[in-house]
Amino acid sequence: MTLADFITSLSQETPPQGLTAYLQALWWDGKGNWQKAHDIIEHVDDDTAAWIHAYLHREEGDNGNARYWYARAGRKMPEVSLKEEWKMITGALSGN
């Protein structure tokens, strides 16, 4: 699925079939459902999940917690907008 297809799918009521937990979390966040995104990603324990978890806490405004998760992911907090970071993560995980 391309990033453009993923973004288009946000007009649907439910995420497309076959999405990884990472992309499901980003899909729900893209729909404006931060809590559902967080509920999905908090149960996955790897660097990619930590990156998404960091992004979600940055979006929440909890920069201290976000920094912790970026460190767990082996990344620094980016200086781009949240929208740009969402696209960056989604694009990386969707193969774009």
What order do the helices and strands come in, and which of them pair?
Layout (H helix, E strand, L loop, with lengths): L2 H7 L11 H10 L3 H8 L5 H14 L2 H10 L9 H12 L3
Helix pairs in contact: 2-3, 2-4, 2-6, 3-4, 4-5, 4-6
The total count of helices amounts to 6
Number of strands: 0
CA-based shape: globular
The arrangement of helices and strands along the chain is: HHHHHH
Spatial extent as radius of gyration: 12 Å
Helix/strand structural class? mainly alpha
Sheet having the most strands: none
Protein architecture, described:
This protein is mostly helical and 96 residues long. The protein has one domain (3-93). The protein has helices at 3-9, 21-30, 34-41, 47-60, 63-72, 82-93. The N and C termini lie close together (9 Å). The mean pLDDT is 96.
Would you summarize the structure shown here?
The chain is mainly alpha-helical and 96 residues long.
Record keyword descriptors for this entry.
single chain; about 100 residues; mainly alpha; 6 helices
